[in-house]
Write a structure and sequence with these properties.
Helix content is 45%, strand content 21%. It is built from 4 helices and 4 strands. The chain has a 4-stranded mixed beta sheet, sandwiched between helices. The longest helix has 12 residues, at 13-24. By secondary structure, it is an alpha+beta fold. It is globular, with a radius of gyration of 12 Å.
Length: 84
């Protein structure tokens, strides 16, 4: 099972939804909170090119945000990515 990192804030509803989806698939998410840590926010922007949360990485692959995660799941591409 691939490691899943999610850049998040403490009050982000899309972050909660993404984490719930991944948890239902048996995945433990390593959350990296950026709301009170400017260094992590800078890292997230550098890695993803985006400023919004969540930003989700499966292994070294940048998946994107919640909508991107759901789209991968609906297309049947999420499970193989998680098991890679």
């Amino acid at each position: 099972m691939e490691t899943v990192r999610m850049y998040s804030t403490q009050i982000c509803p899309y972050c909660v939804r993404a984490e719930n989806l991944l948890n239902r698939k048996g995945v433990e998410v390593k959350k990296i909170l950026v709301d009170h840590n400017p260094a992590e926010l800078t890292t997230m922007i550098k890695l993803s090119g985006r400023r919004s949360v969540p930003q989700i990485f499966i292994g070294d692959k940048h998946v994107g945000g919640y909508d991107d995660l759901v789209e991968l799941d609906m297309d049947g591409e999420l499970d193989p990515l998680l098991k890679a």
